[in-house]
Description:
This protein is α/β, with parallel strands linked by helices. The protein has two domains: 2-236, Aldolase class I (TIM Barrel, Alpha-Beta Barrel), CATH 3.20.20; 245-305, no CATH class. The protein has 15 helices and ten strands. It has helices at residues 23-31, 44-48, 52-55, 76-83, 86-89, 103-106, 118-131, 150-160, 182-191, 205-215, 232-236, 245-260, 262-277, 283-292, 296-305, and strands at 2-3, 6-7, 12-14, 38-43, 68-72, 93-98, 137-141, 164-168, 196-199, 219-222. Strands 3-10-9-8-7-6-5-4 form an eight-stranded parallel sheet. It has a two-stranded antiparallel ribbon with strand order 1-2. Helix 8 links the parallel strand 7 (137-141) and strand 8 (164-168). It is globular.
Amino acid sequence: MKIGPYRLQSDAVLAPMAGVSDLGFRTLARRYGAGLTYTEMVSVCGLMHRNKQTEVLTLVAPCETPAAIQLFGSDPDIFFRAAGHEAVAKFDIIDINMGCPVPKVVSRGEGSALMKDARRAQDIVRATIEGAKGKPVTVKMRLGWDSVIAPEFARQMQEAGAAAVTVHGRTRKQLYTGRADWEAIRQVVEAVDVPVIANGDVKTAEDYRAIKATTGADGVMIARGAVGHTSLFAEILGQTPEVDYKADFTLQLSLLRQTFGDHVACMLLKPHLIAAVSGRRNAKELRLAVGTARAIEEIEAIVNLL
Length: 306
Ligand SMILES: Cc1cc2nc3c(=O)[nH]c(=O)nc-3n(C[C@H](O)[C@H](O)[C@H](O)COP(=O)(O)O)c2cc1C
């Protein structure tokens, strides 16, 4: 799959996930063969206010070539300025969040609320392309707000200059309930010429093949299925990787500590550890130990058991 001038080494990509898509996780996903990794959603307003918590989200791992950042907001002018911001300049691809369903976000006209205002969404895409001086700008959307409008909406994003679109096969109203509608994603693939990345409910290499066959999409984005299971990207490439969880989590933890300090590093590693131990014989005890761990030494001790 190609996004703008960038030919990806795999068409399976790691999704942006707030609080989860940290630099360490993204590094592991790339090592196992993810074709692209995105930062979690970064507020364009936070960037303009030079908010420290926002800036830390814009760090890039050396292996992230090309590197993608996801921005969210609602004002085209602020997107224009954010796209030219030095923290964003390090990235090769800018993705715009038009899928986040969280009330705090949609109440400000951001995230999936943009699917109710195609003209504003188009203005944001155009302003971002202009601010980024022609870098590829992509859009991540849902199927719609409360009904399926993604084929038409994707066409409008393409018309505004989007280099690719990712479609999560649920409406905003559905949040994360039910099954992602892969047939509806197929309609988007048929509606546009730019690459489409299909997203929703891919947990195994088999799911990856099934979503590609059903949708005909150029790429597949994986979110929850990769948490604690970054080797999924190697399995998708037909490999049978020998996974050394201890080494992987030690690397992720050390990257997190360098970036965020010990306390935040512990908190950020927890969902990954909990996902990784599920299905193990002693999963219940391990989950409890992860949940109650406070100090870095406790987290390290659990990692050493893996
Ligand atoms: C904890 C969490 C955080 C998320 N944060 C973001 C985000 O920052 N930006 C975004 O576009 N989508 C975000 N999503 C949505 C995912 O990228 C993805 O679209 C959704 O989870 C469906 O894919 P999946 O079935 O592979 O999980 C998030 C999802 C989860 C579970």
